[in-house]
Amino acid sequence: MSNDARTEPVEENQPRSFLGRWLKITPGDILRLVLICVVVGLILAAFRVDPRRLWVDFFGTMVDAWREFIDISADLVTWGLDYFLLGAVLVIPIWLIVHTVRAMRRSR
Q: How far apart are CA 7 and CA 58, in angstroms?
């Protein structure tokens, strides 16, 4: 019997080719890819990006998404400023009174 038909096993220590490394996909890679797709999809949905429109007009969709981001950011700043001012109406006078009382105690 000839051993010519036998193939030698590839040793684990030998470096793989680029194609071999590229084709090696693990279940963990697939799970990570699915999770990243879901997170990116949620982020794009927050900016009202339509996936069908993204395929047709990528740059126009990105411009609209950027506008939406700016609008959301401006709304967030306005909302935050409104609540800051609402809280400041009560907190700053109380803080001034407490600060004045503490300063008077230290001088004695």
A: 50
The 10s digit of each residue's pLDDT in 45-94 is 888 888 888 888 889 988 988 998 899 999 999 999 999 999 999 999 99
Can you tell me whether residue 8 is helix, strand or coil?
coil
**Residue 18 pLDDT:** 82
Contact in structure between 61 and 53 (CB atoms under 8 Å) = yes
Question: What's the pTM?
Answer: 0.51
Q: Cβ atoms within 10 A of the Cβ of 108, count? A: 4
The amino acid present at 28, given as its one-letter code, is G
Distances (CA, A) of 77 to 21, 43, 82: 47, 19, 9
Reference 68, options 54, 41, 51, 47; nearest CA is 47
Report the alpha-carbon distance of residue 14 to residue 71 in Å, rounded.
Answer: 55
